[in-house]
Amino acid sequence: MPEISGSTQILPVIGRPTPQVKAPHFFNAYFARQDIDAICHAMELSDDAADQLLELLRGWTNAPGIIATIPHKARAASACDELSERAAALGVANLVRREEDGRLVGDMSDGEGCVQAMRDHGVDPSGKRALVVGVGGAGSAIAYALAEANVSTLCVRDLDAARTEKLARMLRGRFPAIAISTDAPDMSALDIAVNGSPVGMNGDPNLPMSLDGIPSTAIVCDAVTAPEQTPWLKAAAQLGCKTSTGNDMVRGHFPILCSHFGFKPD
Fold it and tell me: Would you name the residues annotated as active-site residues?
């Protein structure tokens, strides 16, 4: 670990819970490689405390910003003075940068990370038939990124029917050439299946939905980072599918994370 001094920059990750958070691992290794006087650490915060920290960030001059994870991505977006197009469309942000004048600028990069991880595994989403389970912060961003990547069909599923339909309406308006559904998918017709929900996190043995019928040619991805091999991914591997982990997703968008805070990706 680098020596922490009065000039050390602080990059907090706010969430609840935080045992699964991987950004400190990736960022602190990056800071050490680049000899940057900075540290990244997780802060497990209540909703009120997260709101207070986001306001405090405006005057926190040795913090380049914050990273938000579940359940604080929506409040992170609400705190921002400026949002990227995708963050504004989704109403969530996982990255909040503090400008010198105290303004907060947000972006949402989870979806880009998931799509890049697919590409790193040799799968181009363009023209593929995709399913995303879970339409919270990560799941909605993944659905948006898949639409941007020009999938041919996209099914979004969540226990919250109203939230699912709201996302589907927004995506249909922005990507009219893509067939977007909220109905139960035909698993045998899928090329891509993504868990964007927290199901399977930190020892949860459940699956977000059954993978029965999915072809072995499909890629199955998970946004959950702990454990790395989730029950969803283990079930997919048993069916012969290619898999992509939550850590693959973090690696996929890590250059975006670095750039957003003014660090040069290595």
Answer: 73
- The CA-atom distances, in angstroms, between 107 and each of 19, 150, 155, 241 are 23, 21, 24, 32
Query: Cα–Cα distance between 229 and 232 in angstroms, integer?
Result: 8
Closest CA to 144 of 156, 128, 129: 156
Q: How far is CA 195 from CA 132, 152, 176, 207, in A?
A: 6, 19, 24, 9
- State pLDDT tens for residues 92-139: 999 999 999 999 999 999 999 999 999 999 999 999 999 999 999 999
As to burial, measured by CB atoms within 10 angstroms (0-12 exposed, 13-18 middle, 19+ buried), residue 183 is: exposed
Helix (H) or strand (E) holding 32, with range, is: helix 23-34
CA distance linking residue 56 with residue 62, whole number of Å: 12
Q: What is the pTM of this model?
A: 0.94
